[in-house]
Amino acid sequence: MKQSDRDRSVRLLWEPQPEPTRGPRAALSQARVVQAAIKVADAEGVDALTMRRVAEELGSTAMSLYRHVPGKSELLDLMVDAVWGETEHTPEGPWRAGLEFFARQMWSMYRAHPWMLQLTTSRRMPGPQAMTRQDAAYAVVAGLGLRPEEVVAVVTTVAQFVDGVGRTMADRVQAERETGVSEEDWWNGTESLWEHFTPERLPMMTYLYGSGGFDRPLDEFEFGLARVLDGLAAFVEAEDRPAVRRSTCL
Amino acid sequence: MKQSDRDRSVRLLWEPQPEPTRGPRAALSQARVVQAAIKVADAEGVDALTMRRVAEELGSTAMSLYRHVPGKSELLDLMVDAVWGETEHTPEGPWRAGLEFFARQMWSMYRAHPWMLQLTTSRRMPGPQAMTRQDAAYAVVAGLGLRPEEVVAVVTTVAQFVDGVGRTMADRVQAERETGVSEEDWWNGTESLWEHFTPERLPMMTYLYGSGGFDRPLDEFEFGLARVLDGLAAFVEAEDRPAVRRSTCL
DNA sequence: CTAGAACCGTGTACAACGTACACTGAGTGT
DNA sequence: ACACTCAGTGTACGTTGTACACGGTTCTAG
């Protein structure tokens, strides 16, 4: 993305859109395009999210969308920020309750919009809704006497855990949508795979499977979040915090 | 994916490929196709990973690949499992050291092959290399007296955290590859964005930025992993473990 | 030995996708 | 009234995965 594209994306996300002073009345608008795209992605998944499909949702043609968003990548940025706008800001209060709130807001958002976790990659331009939510999460940690980079790291750890669980969840949702087969039925219906799960080759898995460890799984989000918060508590409440080396350069 | 496609994918990953008994000597092989694809993805990123590009790497044509892998999705499954084959199995020993080893193996793998975190989504068929590594990780936890589903949850938490950090890392690597601009230079060079980061709108971010919280970031993997392991330690070593409700149905 | 089958690689074509460009018509500013 | 701006649409193109047909190579069965 060139500098000029970056600046344009910033204006697109952060500044009010200029109102046209001439020309025909627009049947579409950026907000309508974004909402239609979110509706399509929510209902049909990330692979259905094409410019043609969105335009169809609006009773229009694909090229008309380009009057309102410069491109698909920018549309995705707008969608992500719009969805962040549906979440609440983390309220002031104890750091743990705050981070839990933040994580739950993210989780709810991802559950409602799993496509967010499946977007084409590379750097997305952050928008105001996402940034203000992140800002509020930093705020509940900032009063703990941590160094600034520790504040960032604490919030980042929570977010990255939720992202990881969310990705798994999103992939499951998509698989079920595509195949009409639930996660459980998929594993139960793949006998050819289980034939290869032998005690010689996979001793722990066969033991765990035989013991019901996969039949009644714990809630991954709940279990993992509690552990992450416990670990952060040990860090936050320690008298003498362990030094962590700086990020290595990639 | 239909049942028959599933069975085929299982055979592809888990069973030795039948040797042809007739016909011309093949210039290509499945292993060569997989290795060429890994090489392309490592060097040029996930977007460059097209059948045409892989074929070009082999001095062949795209359609010839289909003699050796049934489709691109199956090629991706094979690639992922091949790369897992480069990692070491978690050795027997203390649970914490074991999980740390597992996490580091994953991290090294993702650092060498960031495309793994960026594959088209939906359910991937697990292969023998990935499964045996997971099996070994379960093994270091299994002797702790946890319930089977707790064993699964403990290992899953670590893996999902690493996946979350890895995704962020992969996106950065890709962005830098595409733009030739480093993460740091990107943020520093996007003045138009910083103009919107004001104390009124983003008080914590501007404070953290001004305090150097973003200049010298802590290593996200190291910091987060330590916290996750601390949290798991509290769980594993607790006398009376908190009950976690079961996974909700999606 | 021969015909047929199995198998390999290639050429061609197609559906689908994002989007550049040109055109037409609607509405405004001078 | 005219020039300009702006919205929507039609057309076309490059790119991607892959179906299908063809020609050639090698082996097996009769």
| Average of the residue pLDDT scores of chain A | 91
Q: What structural class is derived from the secondary structure elements of chain A?
A: mainly alpha
The largest β sheet of chain A comes out as: none
Largest interface, Cβ cutoff 8 Å: A-B, 97 and 96 residues
Strand content of chain A: under 5%
> How many alpha or pi helices of chain A?
12
Helix content of chain A: 55-70%
Order of helices and strands of chain A: HHHHHHHHHHHH
Assembly state: homodimer
CATH superfamily of the largest domain in chain A: Tetracycline Repressor, domain 2
State the CATH topology of the largest domain in chain A.
Tetracycline Repressor, domain 2
3D shape of chain A:
flat
Counting DSSP E segments of at least 2 residues, the number of strands of chain A comes to: 0
Q: Please, how many domains of chain A?
A: 2
Organism (chains A, B): Lentzea xinjiangensis
DNA-binding region (chains A, B): 50-69
Domain HTH tetR-type (chains A, B): 27-87
InterPro entries (chains A, B): Homeodomain-like_sf, HTH-type_TetR-like_transc_reg, HTH_TetR, Repressor_TetR_C, Tet_transcr_reg_TetR-rel_C_sf
